[in-house]
Amino acid sequence: MSGKLRNFILIGLGMLAGIAASMQFSAMAQKQTAPLPLDELRQLADVFGLIKSDYVEPVDDKKLLTEAISGMVASLDPHSAYLDKKALKELREGTQGRFGGLGIEVGTEDGFIKVISPIEDTPAYRTGIKPGDLITRLDGVSVKDMTLDEAVKKMRGEPNTKIVLTIVRKNENKPLVMTIVREEIRVQSVKSKMIEPGYAWLRVAQFQEPTVDDLVKKINAIYAQTPNIKGLVLDLRNDPGGILPGAIGVASIFLPKDVVIVSTNGQLPESKATFYARPEFYAGRHLNDPLSKLPPQIKTVPIVVLVNIGSASASEIVAGALQDHKRATILGTQTFGKGSVQTVRQISPDTAVKLTTARYYTPNGRSIQAKGIVPDLMVDETPEGDGYNSLRLREADLLKHLSNDPAQNEDEAQRINEEEEQKLLSNTKKYKPLEYGSKDDFQLTQALNHLKGQPVKISKTKVEEKKNGADAEKTETESNLKNKQ
Hints:
GO terms for molecular function: endopeptidase activity; serine-type peptidase activity. Keywords: Hydrolase, Protease, Serine protease. The chain contains twelve helices and 21 strands. It is α+β, with helices and mostly antiparallel strands. The chain has two domains: 9-20 and 79-96 and 98-186, Roll (Pdz3 Domain); 190-418 and 433-484, 2-enoyl-CoA Hydratase, Chain A, domain 1 (Alpha-Beta Complex). The strands form four sheets. Strands 1, 5, 6, 7, 8, 9 and 10 form a seven-stranded antiparallel β-sheet that branches. Strands 2, 3, 15, 16, 19 and 20 form a six-stranded mixed β-sheet that branches. Helix 6 (211-225) packs parallel to helix 7 and helix 7 packs parallel to helix 9 (314-324). It is globular and about 75 Å long. The protein starts with 8 loop residues before the first strand and ends with a helix.
């Protein structure tokens, strides 16, 4: 995309958005797989010494070595990273559904910070930040010379502190100046409501430690109110993922016990694993199975799962499992394609490395990485098209993304030419953030139509894409199953 919209990050979510659903914390394993490259290490020492002796001003040893480690890990793929004390703390807090910040997903464009989308029920959302806004100044300081990471750190801060954002917005004659009060954000993982008599809507905004318990409570409350549910809509749109047990538990709610939910494959023996719909894979330290008190009807009620380009990682595991077991109809647009496993290895009391260690596979052996889940019914966000989502990046668009093929990694991202981009931008000038679950939610309306046996408005531009994706999946599945054996 000509260098635009790369390296997107969730402000406030810290390092959570886009991390693999399998986040694990473990001690650093000392594993010697090959002799140390002495010549290259000697060069590293020489460069270190040269900087110390010749650089224009003194440089701290710790800073130099920390940056070297960070660069080495970051060069592997978009999701591997060195975590300093602050980043590690934010990562842990994020899995619990608590973190500080503004609540805004951003990327870069032409040296400025571009808003991908505000997160629901956060300071940025309530202040009126919109997708497509360009942030040009933070507290009056231009972001032009800042890296994305530096801008992110400046926007984070202690709760109840203020930051002033200067924003350029399309169709506005002058910059907008907005003051936002930072706060500790507690994302409500699960929402629910009856959208019509007999039809319920369940939304999982992010997979956290409480997600399975919260979803069980919502389902029990729905059935207590309406025992004869005719259909459920499970909404995973713009859900960036989270922890693996949450994904396994959510899928297990709707699937028979003991079926395969997801499998992984990587170099380490422990990365070659299969995860089933059993309490030991989703209940953690629970003494009792949190799913044991669910109404039995939940295993057979008709389900539509809503997904879009913002559905990633854990969301794709759930959608893939329900699709492969033919338990639900997947409706929406192709998902993000975040199908790699990140393991967090502690290297000191306050630091760690988040390293990609495996790929995810659906029960039928389909790789999620750099492809995502292709819906059964391709439906745009609005009757006119997919709006702003047409401009959003997928995993396959990220530089140095891990390829779908274990034998081949790609260094170049996919591009969208300028003419196509301008056409997309012209179609999204009137875009307004959609309130999921509202009466104006076009995809939800189509999901209801499907549950009722009524016609669904299929995206004309996506029909051929779905056909091509299905053909490619058949070939990839055969290849992936062979690679795993």
